[in-house]
Amino acid sequence: MAVTLADVAARAGVSAATVSRVLSGNYPVAGATRSRVLRAVEELEYVVNGPASSLAAATSDLVGVLVNDIADPFFGIIASAVQSEMEPEKGGGKLAVVCNTGGSPERELTYLTLLQRQRAAAVVLTGSAVEDPAHTEALATRLRRLAAAGTRVVLCGRPPLPEADGDGGRDGQRGAADGGAPLTVAFDNRGGARRLTGHLLALGHRRIGYVAGPAERTTTRHRLEGHRAALADHDRALLAEAERLTVHGAYDRSSGYDGTLELLRREPGLTAVLAANDTVALGVCAALREAGLSIPGDVSVAGFDDLPFSADASPALTTVRIPLHGAGARAGRLALGRDSAPPGGVATVRTELMVRASTAAPRSG
Amino acid sequence: MAVTLADVAARAGVSAATVSRVLSGNYPVAGATRSRVLRAVEELEYVVNGPASSLAAATSDLVGVLVNDIADPFFGIIASAVQSEMEPEKGGGKLAVVCNTGGSPERELTYLTLLQRQRAAAVVLTGSAVEDPAHTEALATRLRRLAAAGTRVVLCGRPPLPEADGDGGRDGQRGAADGGAPLTVAFDNRGGARRLTGHLLALGHRRIGYVAGPAERTTTRHRLEGHRAALADHDRALLAEAERLTVHGAYDRSSGYDGTLELLRREPGLTAVLAANDTVALGVCAALREAGLSIPGDVSVAGFDDLPFSADASPALTTVRIPLHGAGARAGRLALGRDSAPPGGVATVRTELMVRASTAAPRSG
DNA sequence: CATAGGATAGAAAGCGCTTTCTAAAGCGAG
DNA sequence: CTCGCTTTAGAAAGCGCTTTCTATCCTATG
């Protein structure tokens, strides 16, 4: 039905092998022959059959990008950056495939199977991971197997895989023999949270609420650890209160709203609220305003991520900026093997405290 | 290297054909045989070779989703909805591939080639199209060719393809013979804009600025047409001013900011500003506030799309809601052939005026 | 008890491409 | 003018799967 290589070959008066060589370009073909083939391709509107090509060559130009929520700009920005590294102009010429896992470990596995089936050239997993030991192990096993089969695996914004144990590591230098072990681009969530809480403490806040993300996510834990480390640094007594002033929710606006209501119930004297991320912070602000509290006059609010809308919120949000675009681009290059692997396989991306209008010294003391 | 069908067959003590039948499930296999095969698959950790499978079956389970900007929630929501229809549970079991065109016609064509190469099962094109005749024709040709080759083509949020002319239409009833002509899920941008401007006029606004999107985009033109139709309906004299009170920009915040500054320069007596979309509206608000104007006290502001953050902006944004999720889901089902084609191949999605705090009657008159 | 007919499984022919192996020219050097 | 090397192109063998066509084994029926 469709035009095939053989049709082009016949039209150009050459063999199929020659056409293939002209198109892949990794073999010398005389100029005259080449242009004759190219013209035939043109005239017949020939389009390579990808599956056939992938089968014969045992490689494909698909790169999978797994995201937790494609409608969330956080992931959109990362995915966009990864994809921009795959541009044909940049020497990639890969097809970046964004897969929406919805944060579900099962779907993550499902998509990985689908990608493995397609013999994807690389896979980039973004966003926090679920800390369920069973899932962690299943995921790690599959990722190592993918890597061993020649698919490049890059984790972006999640912690590196645990060390392989059990039957793995048959050769001394792990990851050197096969396709290479999974690589990681990690965010310094802990450090960022620590600086953020440090900033609030320096302003004089002592009763700081925390509307955290889902309890089982790595990112949630890391940010919480940073927060508590800062509290402990300042005054170990604050740590005792921290537990009571922390509520968990999802990474969305309504969690911020509901969480804030709960926090106010627990501690009406709150002078600051930290949000799991900027989207949650929006909900926090809405709840505070509805409670008749001004920001930052009565309560300071801070978020995490520094998404595009954060500087535009009113008041502009104090937040911890994660260079998402840079991180995504880095992950993309690692996935393409265009950047050399970072030492230890882990590149940590710095986060930066952005102090804006939503945080100020608490009224009086 | 990898485990193949033959390995599984050998292990299960059956032929390759049987294994294939067990896995595809569209042929009766005796229960005992089936479970023996399944066990072998399990034990060998067999994963189908997608390219080989696609080649032999002459189909693939890839569905391409082209978006203008993956970091923009507008597209994120649509893509997410399309993808949710592809869930294995929903009987789809397709791999939705989100491709970021950056709004560039060339990249659009590039990705379509890539998808055609992969023999994609369907392609969904989202977002406004560029109104360059040369590109429109090139795109239409390629899409019709894709459709003819059996790939389902769905346009979402852009106008239907122009009627095929020239050498096309060899058979009387177009689109019936082959895979089917491209389908469209269109947004009623014109009607939405018309109602929005109507709302402002009803409030008493007469000097209404418009920070429009890129001039060459269909969406921009449609919204502008709706706007002007409303003005003309009310008082033809307003139409004369409309040109002067319209500026063009991109679909981003800074365009809203810059555009508003320009509009204020042209007409300091502005009482309302319409934005190309909600993101642009954020920039409009920022510029107005910096100019010392209150919203909606001095100037009313309205947007388009009703993205998640729009209700949270302060003041909450009056806007035209487009049911993006529903539209994306519809497009997804059409792409899967799960919904029957709408009459004329075009399903138009209603838009809804959401009146919120950012618009009010102008001060005095 | 013989035989038609259904159920189940195997053999084998591709799907369209890449790539190794091989052959035919074309060239300068002895 | 011949020999051996390089350049260029063809033949053909798969890549791993699906699917048609056949063969076999039962079971039901006359």
The CATH homology group name of the largest domain in chain A? Response regulator
Spatial shape of chain A = elongated
Task: Round the Cα radius of gyration of chain A to an integer and report it.
Answer: 25 Å
Number of domains of chain A: 3
**Largest sheet of chain A, if any?**
6 strands, parallel
CATH classification, class level of the largest domain in chain A: Alpha Beta
Structural class of chain A, by secondary structure, is: alpha/beta
Largest sheet strand order of chain A: 2-1-3-4-5-11
Question: What is the overall pLDDT average of chain A?
Answer: 91
* Strands of chain A, total number: 12
What's the tally of helices of chain A?
A: 13
As an assembly, this protein is: homodimer
Query: Which fold name is given in CATH as the topology of the largest domain in chain A?
Result: Rossmann fold
Structure description:
The structure is a homodimer of 365-residue chains. By secondary structure, the first copy, chain A, is of the alpha/beta class. Chain A has three domains: 5-56, lambda repressor-like DNA-binding domains (434 Repressor (Amino-terminal Domain), Orthogonal Bundle), CATH 1.10.260.40; 60-187 and 326-349, Response regulator (Rossmann fold, 3-Layer(aba) Sandwich), CATH 3.40.50.2300; 189-322, Rossmann fold. In chain A, 44% of the residues lie in helices and 14% in strands. The first copy, chain A, is built from 13 helices and twelve strands. In chain A, strands 2-1-3-4-5-11 form a six-stranded parallel sheet, with helices on both faces. In chain A, strands 7-6-8-9 form a four-stranded parallel sheet, sandwiched between helices. A two-stranded antiparallel sheet of chain A has the order 10-12. In chain A, α1 (5-12) crosses α2 (16-24) and α11 crosses α12 (278-290). Mean pLDDT of chain A is 91; it is low at 166-178. Chains A and B meet through α4, α5, β2, α6 and α12 of A and α4, α5, β2, α6 and α12 of B. Chain A binds a DNA duplex (30 and 30 nucleotides) through residues 2, 4-6, 14-18, 20-21, 24, 27-30, 33, 48-49, 51-58.
